[in-house]
Structure formats: C-alpha cells, structure tokens
C-alpha cells in the first residue's frame, strides 16, 4: 500500500493539476474576501470602483461567521467540480496515457492500487480545504472582519471539513465512470450531469434525497427558510460514497482489461 500510495503521489507531484486546483481555491478564498470587503462599506466599494453607482449588495453581513459560511459554500459548490476533476484525472489518466496495462501487470493487488488512488485524492482534497481555511484566516484578518472568537474559528473549520468529507464521498462514483469509460470523457460527463441535476433537484425541493445536493444544502446555501438535510440525506451521501469506492474496486478486479 505504501509503495502504491507513493507512486500516486509521484504522479500528482509531476503534474500541473495540484497547482491548478490550489490556484482555483486561492482565487475562491480571495473572492470571498472581496465580497466581505464590499459588504463592510458599500460607499467605499463604489468609490474604489468595486461596485457600480446603482449596484448594491443586500442581505449580507461582513463578519467572521458569514465569511466562514461563504468559504464552506465554496467547498461544497466548487469542490463538487474540482474534487471531481481530481478523482477523474487520477483514474482516467491511466487509460488516456496508456499506462493501465503496465499498472495492472505489477505484482500489486488491484484493490491496493484503487485504495491508494482514493487515499491520495482524499488527502489532496482535504489539503485544499485546509488551504482555503488558512487563506480565509489571513484574508479576514487583513480586512479587519468583526466577530472573531476561537469558537467561531473552530466551528468554521469543523463545517469546512464536514462539507469536504461529504463532497469527497459524492465524487467517488466519478472514478467508476472514468474507469468504465476508460478515460476522462465519461468521468467528466458524469460529473457535469451530477452537478446539473444537483442544482435542479435542489430547486425543486428534493435535494435532501439526492446525494450530490446534500453538501451544498448542509452549508445553508438554499437560504434560512430551507431545512438542512436530515439523517436520510447524510445516509445517502455515505451510501453513495461507499458505492463509488466498492464499485470502482469491483470493476478494476473483474472487468475485462484485454486492451
């Protein structure tokens, strides 16, 4: 397992994707800070050219709790795409680059190879989440957000990690799609379909019954008048994540690899 995990880490380190994902979440944290900066003083924002003379932002507050909520929603919405891209790349690259035959010829159980891939992607996604949190601390402090306390910071980190774990769980089926489709295309297609359906089903009020909608609903993105997902929603996320992992393992173990 350690050798397989090391190989996956080496592949990631030699690609540009870690830098691209890190940059994407850096921009997201910075944008959240910009929103907080604007909400602190709308007249100042207009004077600096950040808002048009007739534009306004209403219904928001500029403090630490609000900023942590915004970062959490970033992980839920942006993570469903970027975490999905990481998973699809990790599994799809073996087929697109023609290395799958060499990989399967190694004296390493296929279950171990899949487990190593999932372990590396999970750690990768959690590190991006921690990066977003730390950047949020720096940005929020630099613009002088109010409402800071150790309890607020701990709650913000907890919600970020819970959202990240749920998002990681719901993107695991994309690994199966990339494997069955023998490349990136099927995985990316499944990812976009899930993201689209998550938005539509959540708007219809049935998001708690659709695993890919649950992480965003957990962050309160639907508004204060919507109840958070119940036990059923969280259970579906866990079941979906387990199904994605077990389905991918089963496919790698039993599918025809004659190509």
From TrEMBL:
**What keywords were assigned to this record?**
Membrane, Transmembrane, Transmembrane helix
Q: Does the keyword Secreted apply?
A: no
Q: Where are the transmembrane segments?
A: 19-39, 67-92, 113-139, 151-177, 184-211, 231-252
Protein name, UniProt field: ABC transporter permease
Q: Which organism is it from?
A: Amycolatopsis mediterranei (strain S699) (Nocardia mediterranei)
